[in-house]
């Protein structure tokens, strides 16, 4: 008698195919990691196509507003440290009476700036959100009639207030989330 091998079920076949596609997609993402400027140029290009679609179609302002709020939220998470000094300050105030911050004296330990949302995840989430928003502009269910200047003004006010609060937080706890203007040391310093 021949041995009967179990046939592959349709679910297993779909699962194997999906798994293979996910691995290929992850490989492309991994290959794109070192090309930061090119990734961001592609995202900005996609955002311009999205805005062009909104401008030409004269609709879907709620989709654009929602995308703007989401991108603002991502940007704020990108600017914030992973370990918030204000939470540490609350914990430390009772113990030593000083507010937390980055080290300013020689005897304090060095704590590097670690982002709450790393650059790659920021790029990936922003690009995915823009692509989803672009797809939403092709369905009339998302075209809710609104007076768009109100949304623009509200978003600008929201941006100004949240950025002011974030900048005040950065000044209060003395951290800079960017490497522009920071001292760079050579490896072969004498």
Describe this entry's structure for a reader:
Involved in the retrieval of endoplasmic reticulum membrane proteins from the early Golgi compartment. It is found in: Membrane. The chain crosses the membrane at residues 38-56, 62-79, 122-141, 147-164. Pfam families: Rer1. This is Protein RER1. It is a single chain. The protein is mainly alpha-helical and 190 residues long. The protein has a domain at 18-83 and 113-173. It is 63% helix and 0% strand. The protein has six helices and no strands. The chain has helices spanning 10-32, 36-57, 61-79, 85-96, 119-136, 148-172. Helix 2 packs parallel to helix 5 (119-136). The longest helix is centred in the last third of the chain and has 25 residues, at 148-172. It starts with 9 loop residues before the first helix and ends in an 18-residue tail after the last helix.
